[in-house]
Specification:
single chain; 111 residues; mainly beta; seven-stranded antiparallel beta sheet; 1 helix
Length: 111
């Protein structure tokens, strides 16, 4: 997914009953999103800003066909953190991506 992030911008909103609705980061170039299962940490890297979400409980995506519009992350404290894309991110076709994973990169033959 990192290859298709070039030029994409994202904004991060944080919402909970205790906090209300807050903008954590205004639209800025999005450099990457990674999840480390060992530390249970989701990292969103924006230009000059890194937003970390620990103890991820659920991840929901808002998509239209193969276009990703936003990602909602719910942490274990019930805080919703919404990563909004300024314009939709076109995802690879799931069938083509599944076929590519079954190919052996060295020979091109199915595994």
């Amino acid at each position: 997914m990192s290859k298709v992030l070039a030029g994409k911008q994202a904004e991060i909103d944080v919402e909970s009953l205790e906090l209300g609705a807050q903008v954590a980061s205004r639209f800025a170039p999005l450099h990457g999103i990674t999840y480390d299962h060992k530390s249970d940490m989701l990292e969103i890297m924006l230009e000059r800003w890194e937003h970390n979400i620990s103890h991820v409980h659920e991840i929901w995506i808002d998509r239209d066909g193969i276009s990703l519009n936003s990602i909602m992350v719910l942490d274990s404290d019930g805080v919703e953190q919404i990563i909004k894309l300024r314009d939709p991110l076109t995802l690879p076709d799931p069938q083509l991506a599944a076929g590519a994973r079954r190919q052996d990169p060295g020979s091109g033959a199915p595994r």
